[in-house]
Every structure is written in C-alpha cells, then in structure tokens.
C-alpha cells in the first residue's frame, strides 16, 4: 500500500503483513520438541575419547597452531616489514628492524609474540609478503610465568623442513 500527499515531497508508507501463527507455534512447543529430539539423538551416539598424552593428535595441514618464523638455510625469511604487527587484532606481535648487508637488506633485531595475547587468527600469516610467519601444527602451550609466554626469535624460528606440510597447504590455497 502506498500513500502520497499532494506535497512536492512524497512519503511512502508500506504495510507488511506477517503470517499469523497458530496456537502451537506461538507457544514454541514444536521447536522445543525438535531441539530435544536432536539432543537425544546426539546423547545416545557412541562416545569418542582420545587418551591424550599417550595417544597424540596429528593435526591436518590446515590447522592453525602457534605462529612461528620460517627459517631457511639458517636465516629467517622475515624482512621486518611490520605488516604482521599492524594487522594483529590482539597487538601480540612486536617487531624492530635493522639494516643488513645481505641480499634482503633488512632483518628483525627483535621479533616477539606474546602468546597470552595471541588469538591464533592467522592474520599475520595472511599479511606476510615473504611467507615468513606461518601457523604451525603445535598446540601445546604451557607457561609457568607470564614472562615465559613472550616468545622471542630463539623460540619462534622453525625450519622449512618441519613446516613443509603447512607451506604446501598455503601455496595451494592462495
């Protein structure tokens, strides 16, 4: 339905008719019963339990574990552009750059990730132009002190051989 006035500015009024609900639909009883049936179906399925420390889980190559720096031929790939630190929503990454005489011109003097702040979103991995920071398959993070949760280059560097499945997955998905 549209109404117009004689003024130069027209106002449109639309009336929307909603379907009237039956008594049972207004009480939501059918929806509650559907939810209970679904719950009961899952309740009686066979259970699956992994005996964790003895039985290890091998994550797929698409799994996003803790972020690591890629080390290739004993040198990190990172050129300290700082894109990973800028894109990190949790502000968990800190990078300080310096000049070098090598081919890549810059390298990170300081590269730290606060694992307590990291939300494992993978934005740093997507933003990196050099494929220097990737999400590994490691999911066990244990800290005794808050200071232990700040990973420096010494704990972040990982060889390309160890990260080969993840790097291949990234190349296929891009």
Number of strands: 7
Beta-strand percentage range: 15-25%
Q: Return Rg in Å.
A: 27 Å
- Written as H for each helix and E for each strand, in order along the chain, the element string is HHEEHEEHEEHEH
Distance between the termini: 50 Å
Number of helices: 6
Biggest sheet: strands, sense, closure?
Answer: 4 strands, mixed
CATH architecture field of the domain at 67-173: 2-Layer Sandwich
Spans of at least 5 consecutive residues whose pLDDT stays below 50 are none
Could you name the CATH topology of the domain at 67-173? Answer: Alpha-Beta Plaits
- Principal-axes geometry comes out as extended
Approximate helicity band: 25-40%
CATH first level of the domain at 67-173: which class? Alpha Beta
Average pLDDT, all residues: 89
User: Which class of secondary structure composition applies to the elements?
Assistant: alpha+beta
